[in-house]
Fold this sequence. Notes:
2 copies of one chain form a homodimer.
Chain A: H1 13-35, E1 41-47, H2 50-63, E2 70-73, H3 79-82, H4 88-91, E3 100-104, H5 106-116, H6 122-141, E4 145-152, H7 155-165, H8 174-181, H9 183-196, E5 204-208, H10 212-232, H11 266-289, E6 294-300, H12 306-314, E7 322-326, H13 332-335, H14 341-346, E8 353-357, H15 366-369, H16 375-394, E9 398-405, H17 408-420, H18 430-437, H19 439-453, E10 460-464, H20 468-489
Parallel strand pairs in A: 1-3, 1-4, 2-3, 4-5, 6-8, 6-9, 7-8, 9-10
Helix pairs in contact in A: 1-10, 2-10, 5-6, 5-9, 6-16, 11-20, 12-20
Amino acid sequence: MLEATEAGQTLSEAAFARQTPGLRVALINAQYDLSTADFPVIVVLAGDDRLGCNATLNTLHEWMDARYLEAFALRPPSDEELERPRLWRFWRTLPGRGQLGIYFGGWSQQVVADRARRKIGERQFARRLAHGALFERTLVADGALVLKFWLHVSKREHKRRLKRAGKRDRAIDDRDWAIYEHYDRGMPLAERMLRETSTGGPAWHILESTDARFRDVFVARTILEGITTRLAERKPRRRSRARRGPAGTGERPVLAGVDLSFTLPRKRYKTQLARLQTTLARLTREAALASRTSVLVFEGWDAAGKGGVIRRLTNAIDARDYRVVAIAAPTPAEAAHHYLWRFWRHLPRAGTVLIFDRSWYGRVLVERVEGFARTDEWCRAYDEINDFEQQLVEHGILVRKFWLHLDQATQLERFRAREETPYKKYKITEEDYRNRERWQDYEAAVDEMVTRTHTKDAPWTLVPSNDKRVARVEVLRTVCKGLKQAARTS
Amino acid sequence: MLEATEAGQTLSEAAFARQTPGLRVALINAQYDLSTADFPVIVVLAGDDRLGCNATLNTLHEWMDARYLEAFALRPPSDEELERPRLWRFWRTLPGRGQLGIYFGGWSQQVVADRARRKIGERQFARRLAHGALFERTLVADGALVLKFWLHVSKREHKRRLKRAGKRDRAIDDRDWAIYEHYDRGMPLAERMLRETSTGGPAWHILESTDARFRDVFVARTILEGITTRLAERKPRRRSRARRGPAGTGERPVLAGVDLSFTLPRKRYKTQLARLQTTLARLTREAALASRTSVLVFEGWDAAGKGGVIRRLTNAIDARDYRVVAIAAPTPAEAAHHYLWRFWRHLPRAGTVLIFDRSWYGRVLVERVEGFARTDEWCRAYDEINDFEQQLVEHGILVRKFWLHLDQATQLERFRAREETPYKKYKITEEDYRNRERWQDYEAAVDEMVTRTHTKDAPWTLVPSNDKRVARVEVLRTVCKGLKQAARTS
């Protein structure tokens, strides 16, 4: 595959001089048009030609308007990055809609290098390829224009450059020697990566980069064409309100199986709560010292008592060791990115208990039912979510998800009671009553959500919450159990 | 000062039950009103009572609407944080206008603890107090409401708690023992910190926190009063267009002293450029390996050739080792913060050459001349900028600033030439011609800027740029010289 590009393609000085002025004007105009468009552009500049990537990045800086692009040349990961799943460093810097980001090396080049130098085994190589490929498909499905370039030079050309380097080339260094040394093992791995991350997702542009003029013009022209083509086909987004996906699972009535009749007398509750909170205090302190992170997700019907449950948790945890993230409507910056972006950004440093008061499941609950997300969007969200959580788990993070369940009659009682408590009144709006009319739609969405995203490592707990005491004790118990398990297996 | 608070203040259970419901309603209403206000609220929760701070934070989470507050309980700094000046971790998380952030411990508690445990000497203690105090004054001057609480308990109470802890209190741990052990040395240091960070800036609320009800209601009520008072006094910002500050220095015509007559023949330029770029490549690679950061600031007249100069730099530096930040109009998120916020956020990981194409000096240049900043805003910007750069320098960062100077005739020539080059045409707008009419206003602003912010460690270089070759060589030479110096002294 790579060898096939070694065709000696060049661009003459005259042709270069003729083409570039027009290309530069068009590029800058495309950048302006992009700035008001509703999609981001992600350019990946990778390859076995390190110097070529360098030079092309410089050329793009020169030809384009630097105020409307951002380049990310990632250095070895920091400890903040090492404390999160591997793709976090890409998520945290992703361009928003209308913006352009250039990734130098990208995630894929590192995978190939790590495998070529035997830093990782076959299994991890395959897993990282799979996560990376899904990452790209996720961005593309969300509307991103992803343009990937692999800059290749032949082994002979590598050798020629290195030989010459001794004499006068200031730019060649150890890294180029390393590429040459691992060339024979590296190229088949690169080809495999290129193949596996092209199908179903954005394709790679593989090019011979021996001739600088050919290379720079090719890359610039491809970026230009990508943007202009995309701008031309732009059409208003159709908002489909279909609430049931084409796949249509969720036949099993999950919620119906929750026994809401449990109650817990006040006194026994007090004793159990105190005991569980003492245990939780110890376990979370130990987890913090051992840098073990937990992610707890809370979803549930309005007035099911999420807030109260969460406070019973945080009261037992040191303020430095937890973080509550309450999810409201997205900010403009959040709306300008893939919906998972803001959750990636919230991932905490190692050793934290991160509590989500509502979460990414909004995509397949409220956004699905109210039609804020298109059918194709919420349908593919199940896979995106499973992969996201799988990355957390593989990174050693404990993931537990809770659905607080109650019946309609109990909910109505609580709405009424809230309206009579002055400081709880703000929690009840007309919308809450309106949502009740959609009870069955929500029920179907919850059923499907649980069915599709309940996994061994990131399980749902359906918490009977008609009695708040039962709910609190149940959640505390589940969290403690999870923390103990995590302590044993880590 | 602290002892004076040990008055045994309490709040009875009955009074607490009577007061809290109204307080909670008022707090939540204040939060809603705040969300559309034009100032941020920063609450600092610090003190020698670690458990009290913990408990109060929990209470605030319970009483307020968690979706409209964010709490920051900082853990030991990460390497990403250690690679930047100390206050970066606060800048990176500052709430925007209309938002509320609670800082647990804040910067000040750490300073006291570090000094009490003799991790830092007297000089560093004084310096960190000074930076911290100016940091707070900067935020307040920019409109932030800063509410600081120091929660104090007497030595006797500390002792009592620790004694009791052996028996049953699960919450007490080593950190509380450490506070007690260093109590006698710590309290005078705390008092000094409290004094030095109260004058001229936001005052501390010092309170005895032995009684939990008294403490929580006091803190909540003070926050509420702070916000409502501030909301009531809100008045539209007056936009003053005065372009000369009251202090009125800048009598020395700095720019007039720049000799613009230098020229450099093409051949000598080529030789010098190649030599300097080779040196720069080596020096920046060495700096990257030694984790030495540089910050290069470029300002200058339109068409003075900033872009060309910057490209001559980046062409010689490895893509992983530099970052160009082109400053355009602020984004909504940037506009919602102090103007220095976005520059703090851009501070890179250690070992990077960070190049600003325009910078924080916009505050005292375009914003001053065009009246985008009020007179008091740009007048105090000189101090804020000097302190910012001083923090960079103290952190070991090389700071060099360049003003690219040319005369009006040369500028006009270049405008005309640009209009005739297709891919440069976009660089010329009517605004550029309009700015020429303000030449003298800008000249005065530049003179004052250089006079007030030219320091030994963060010096300006006035670069004669009538001949672009002269400018490029001059900048490269200055940067190389700076890097060499930094290598020697680090």
